Amino acid sequence: xHNVDVIIPALNEEAALPCVLxxxxxxxxRRVIVADNGSTDRTAALALENGAEVVYEAERGYGAAxxxxxxxxxxxxxxxxxxxxxxYSDHPSELDFLIGPIFAGDADLVIGSRARGQRExxxxxxxxxxxxxxxxxxxxxxxxxxxxxxxPFRAIRWQTLQALHMEDRNYGWTVEMQIKAARRxxxxxxxxxxxxxxxxxxxxxxxxxxxxxxxxxxxxxxxRYAWS
Length: 228
Prior knowledge:
Blueprint (H helix, E strand, L loop, with lengths): L3 E7 L6 H7 L7 E6 L6 H7 L3 E4 L5 H12 L6 E4 L11 H9 L5 E5 L12 H18 L10 E4 H7 L8 H12 L3 E5 L15 H20 L1
Parallel strand pairs: 1-2, 1-4, 2-3, 5-7
Antiparallel strand pairs: 4-6, 5-6
Helix pairs in contact: 5-8, 7-8
């Protein structure tokens, strides 16, 4: 048996989160942790009603929420951690696509690629597509790894994740993981996943401030680790 836990960072996702939780293939999953990142709606209550555990992180930031959830799991860690967005843009039913290569021993890190999968028209904004292309090109040139996406729907072995010593507390969480995995030679795979228009407005790509902040942070991290 492989213990698989799911982490869902969430901020004001009461409309989307129940849909996400209902579609998680529960026979494959031991625990679902919703990291409430300061919601002012019923996100936390609906998470509990739908069988998830809830942790609270008042500091706004995707990475901060993920780190709080990982701390919550540390007393009884899983073998595999899956990260999944709470806005219903990912397809939770495809979770087995991500954990399959890890089960088979072919990878320690699996990225769900929205670029290679089926996606609804307009689901990825122009700034997301451009940012992904720039970041993935830089990763290939700097480390020789071939990614097509920085997709948030991803799976990683617990021990591998701990060895990466993740630090980023906001926009750079996904690219930091891929940079550090590349630097350590972590075996990886990329699998196509489906992607749809999210429910509600994105806190990152849906605002000018978020888009600029995410792009600047990704470039800063690429430069920082390349220099080091």
